[in-house]
Amino acid sequence: DFDLASVADILETKPEFETAVSALLGERMQFLVVPGAAQGVQCADLLKSSGVGRGSFIPLSAWADETDVSV
C-alpha cells in the first residue's frame, strides 16, 4: 500500500519561482509519484484493466540518490 500524490502536491519552491517551475514542468506537474517502477506498472495495469483512463507515473526511487536542492 502507498499513497499517490502528484508532482504538484509534493514539489516545493519559493513563491517567486512557482510560475517558472510550472511553465517548465507543464503537464508533468500532474504526473503521479509512486514509490518505485513496479508500483508505476501496477498502477498503469490497474487503469488499463478497469478502463477508467490513463496516467503518467514517476518512481520516487528515481530521486532516491538526489540531494535536496534549494533555489
Give the CA-based shape.
elongated
Structural class: alpha+beta
Residues in helices, as a percent range: 25-40%
Q: So how many helices?
A: 3
The main sheet comes to: 3 strands, mixed
Q: What's the overall average pLDDT, rounded? A: 87
Order of helices and strands: EHHEHE
Termini separation (Å)? 33 Å
Poorly predicted regions: none
- In total, the number of strands is 3
- Proportion of residues in extended strands: 5-15%
Structure description:
The protein contains three helices and three strands. A three-stranded mixed sheet has the order 1-2-3. The chain is elongated. Strand 2, helix 3 and strand 3 (57-59) form a beta-alpha-beta unit. The protein has 71 residues and is of the alpha+beta class. It has helices at residues 7-10, 18-25, 37-50; strands at residues 5-6, 32-34, 57-59.
Task: Spell out the blueprint of helices and strands.
Elements: E1 5-6, H1 7-10, H2 18-25, E2 32-34, H3 37-50, E3 57-59
Parallel strand pairs: 2-3
Antiparallel strand pairs: 1-2
